[in-house]
Design goal:
Strand content: 35-45%
Mean pLDDT: 86
Number of helices: 2
Structural class: alpha+beta
Number of strands: 5
Shape: globular
Helix content: 10-25%
């Protein structure tokens, strides 16, 4: 189980996540949900500077920590977002 999912179980849904890319640039996101797709967990995050477009990251276990890889494959993006949309149809206006 991912650390984000643990946080989801322990806290209210309203929290932010900071992710630092390989170039050392840190971006802040609003956590929206964790989606399970093909036995992998994906984080659906809303960039703090964008209120319309979400980013989807694959959660990769790495010992005690975890890494987040931005999903760029259109098929996976569409599938994960479709699951997210169905799960949250009462929460968000799509």
């Amino acid at each position: 189980m991912s650390k984000l999912l643990d946080m989801l179980n322990d806290e209210a849904l309203d929290f932010t996540v900071k992710i630092t890319d390989t170039d050392g640039v840190t971006a802040e996101y609003e956590f929206l949900d964790i989606v399970l797709y093909k036995k992998n967990e994906y984080a659906v995050l809303l960039p703090s500077d964008d209120d319309e477009n979400v980013d989807i990251f694959k959660i990769i276990p790495d010992g005690k920590n975890e890494k987040y890889a931005r999903v760029t494959d259109d098929e996976t993006l569409d599938a994960v977002f479709d699951i997210f949309r169905v799960k949250n149809e009462d929460e968000f206006d799509f």
